[in-house]
Amino acid sequence: MLNNVQGGVVIDAKGLIRQHGNGQSAVKAINGIDLVVQSGEMVALMGPSGSGKSTLMQILGLLDRPSQGSYHLAGKDVSRLSKGESAALRGRRIGFVFQGIHLLPRLTAIRNVELPMVYARFSSAERRRRAEDSLDRVGLGTFAGRRPNQLSGGQAQRIAIARAVAPGPDLLLADEPTGALDRASGRDVLALFQQLNQELGLTIVIVTHDPLVGRHTKRIVELEDGRIIGDRPVEDRILAQNTSEVGA
Amino acid sequence: MNAFTIALDSIWSHRLRSALTALGIVIGVFAVVTLTSLGAGVSSYVSGQFKVFGATLVTVSPATPGQTARHPHPGFSPGGNVPSTLTLGDVSAISALHSPAIARVAPMAVIPAPIGTSLGQSSGLSVIGTNAAYFLAEQMKFSGGRFNGTGVVLGSKAAVALFGHQKHLEGRTVYLGKTPLVVSGILKASTGITSAENNMVFVPVTTGLNAVGLKNISQIVVQATSDQSVNQAVSAVTGVLNHRHPVHDFSVTKDTQFLTTINKTLSTITIFLSGLAAISLLVGGIGIMNIMLVTVTERFREIGIRKALGARDGDILVQFLAESVLLALLGGAIGVGLSAIASHVIGKLAGFPAGVTVGSIVLAIGFSVGVGIVFGVLPALRASRLMPAEALRTE
Ligand SMILES: Nc1ncnc2c1ncn2[C@@H]1O[C@H](COP(=O)(O)OP(=O)(O)OP(=O)(O)O)[C@@H](O)[C@H]1O
Ligand SMILES: [Mg+2]
Fold it and tell me: What is the pLDDT of residue A117?
């Protein structure tokens, strides 16, 4: 897996533009984004509402296509893939964690975790093994048989994280994973991301409004009006905090 | 975790809605299968009845001259609108052939005269003038007495209508118009296509004709000696009658022809009714499409999640198609089940064997799957083509 290769470039995006509509009513949700993320990095993406964070994440996660610009994922040009090819990549190479609790309500926790591997055509034994490992990793090995409505919000989000990492992706994308959680469980989830980043060397991009995210990440990228207006390492934690509060 | 378990789960989680959706298919399949199996039941029953006679009977009926060729099944209207020119002389002439192919010859004359007892007339009974050979050819069974050539034979219901019961009526008097006649036999009750006999009163043919002053008889019934000699009997009869009726105002029909006509008519009716029933299947299919379209809109989020997790368009297509096919199959299975019960009950009540045939089950299952696919494709395509970003945005 590429996430074990130290020093490789996982995300290499140049001049990404995503335009909705045409002519006068055209809206550029993101407007010229250049972003490079190295393997093993954990990056926080911040910015005011409507600044284009989700749009950027969806493009990075191959859920959406840029109107312009190029995107190389782990060295492969993915900005002009067919629907089927991007679906396959999505399933194996990218883990996605959403803001809401995006578990399928009719499936047990472990079935939810297995789902991306079903679509990636893993063998059922492999699926089960990885799902169990993954649930153990997020500390919910004993919750395998529970359904989403029998889980707390924080637990459900951990299951969703287990689901995202189970296939062994190169890249983990999380769009406001703590948005639906209270402060304490939100912090726990952030800590979990940090742990995954450190233990597995997993490359992570995470959108958050939490001003204390700097405790967990080493790099904060700031967006406004569809452009990157700040990209700094979090050596200077105070500065990062201040900027995010000014931006909000 | 394959498409069908997902589909089953989804159907099960919306039990009431699924049941109501499947109801259209249940009704459609029920109607189609019941009608076809009843049709098959009636037709096999009719054939069975004809087998009893060994299909050896040949009927001579009056016909419009020249039209005979284009009017092959006059058996439907014995003594109907075509005036008869057949006479007892024709019967004798056929008998006089002594053809080895012919076992019996019997006249049959509908006598348009009232029948009654000393107490008054009975309505709803028909009077038939004939001879002893007729009872043998038509295989009638007596519960008492016999046809002795001078007396009267009563059908079972006719006996009840005239005397209130069927026992020991031999020697009692009935009146044909004003002519008194002595009862000499009572027939056993008959079921099936010959049950009209029950309401008949049989009198010696000459007595009957004299009572109403008629010369012509309605039909001549000829029984061939065996199944194999039927055609020979037909040509023998036709030969004699061509001589006696140069204008060819008669037609000769084999009972098997009659059977073919009945079966043809029955299958036409069955196909027609099944066609009507199939329309309800169509309506059921549209119901499925409707619900599936609603389901797709309701499940944008689920579709978005699945796609974000790597589901291809094909995976989603198969999932939704499986759901509509399963729903239709479910309806079809219930429809076939209900139809099996209904055909059994109707068959029992009507007195003929009608079971659901393998053919009709295959037809119904095929139909259901077809309906599920045809009406499931549009919603499934719509679901599969959803862009994951769009699907996830609808919260
Ligand atoms: N399908 C669309 N059609 C038109 N405009 C859109 C569409 N999707 C997004 N936008 C616009 O693009 C801009 C960026 O949206 P996006 O969801 O990326 O913002 P965000 O930074 O994630 O905001 P938030 O923090 O509220 O989630 C917004 O102005 C939004 O209205
Ligand atoms: Mg957003």
Answer: 93
Among B198, B218, B244, which residue terminates a domain? B244
All residue ranges of chain A with pLDDT < 50 are 1-6, 237-248
Counting ligands in written order, the one closest to the CA of A58 is 1
Q: B123 with B225, same domain?
A: yes
Contacting B residues, span 239-278, partner chain A, CB-CB under 8 Å: none
How confident is the model over B339-358, as pLDDT tens digits?
888 888 887 887 777 777 78
Residue B124 CB-density burial (10 A; 0-12 exposed, 13-18 middle, 19+ buried):
exposed
Is the beta carbon of A20 within 6 A of some atom in ligand 1?
A: yes
Interchain CB contact of A120 with B (< 8 Å):
yes
In a domain, B133, yes or no: yes
A106 shares contact with chain B (CB less than 8 Å): yes
Judgement on whether residues B144 and B42 belong to the same structural domain of the protein: no
Domain count, chain B: 2
Which residue has better confidence, B70 or B274?
Answer: B274
Domain range enclosing B347:
2-49+261-393
What distance in Å separates residue A86's CA from the closest CA in chain B?
8
B27 plus B135 within the same structural domain: no
- Whether A50 is in the pocket of ligand 1, judged by its Cβ within 6 Å, is yes
Q: Is B271 domain-assigned?
A: yes
**Helix (H/G/I), strand (E/B), else coil: A21:** coil
Instruction: State the pLDDT at residue B66.
Output: 62
Enumerate residues with CB within 5 Å of ligand 2 (an ion).
Answer: A 54
Starting from the CA of residue A30, give the closest ligand: 1
Q: Is the pLDDT of residue B49 over 80?
A: no
A1 touches chain B (CB under 8 A): no
Q: Is A29 in the pocket of ligand 1 (CB under 6 A)?
A: yes
Q: Tell me the three state secondary structure of residue A217.
A: coil
Task: Tell me how many helices (H) and strands (E) chain A has.
Answer: 7, 10
With bands split at pLDDT 50, 70 and 90, how would you rate the model's confidence at B51?
low
Give the residue on A whose Cα is nearest the Cα of B316. Answer: A119
The residue whose CA is least distant from atom 27 of ligand 1 is A49
ipTM metric: 0.87
3-class SS shares of chain B: helix, strand, coil, % to 5: 60, 15, 25
What was the pLDDT predicted at A246? 41
Cα–ligand 2 centroid distance for A49 (angstroms): 7
- Cβ burial B370-385 (10 Å sphere, 16+ → b, else e): ebbeebbbebbebbbe
User: Over the stretch B215-229, which tens digit does the pLDDT of each residue have?
Assistant: 899 999 999 988 788
Q: What is the pLDDT of residue A130?
A: 95
Distances in Å between the alpha carbon of A12 and those of A31, A38, A72, A179? Answer: 16, 9, 5, 27
Same domain flag for B102 and B144: yes
B-facing residues of A in 136-165 (CB < 8 A) are 163
| Average of per-residue pLDDT across B313-332 | 90
Position B111 in a domain: yes
- Residue A28: strand pairing partners: A19
Q: How far is the CA of A50 from the centre of ligand 1 (A)?
A: 5
pLDDT score at A244: 45
Same structural domain for residues B240 and B150? yes
Q: How far apart are CA A56 and CA A30, in angstroms?
A: 7
Backbone angles phi, psi at A102, to 5 degrees: -100, 50
DSSP track, B180-202: EEEEEEEEPP--GGGGGGGGEEE
Q: Are residues B92 and B237 in the same domain?
A: yes
* Minimal C-alpha gap between A41 and chain B (Å): 22
Residue in chain A closest to B14 (alpha carbons) equals A106
Average pLDDT over residues B108-129: 89
Domain co-membership, B296 together with B212: no
Q: Is residue B210 part of a domain?
A: yes
Residue B276 and residue B190 share a domain = no
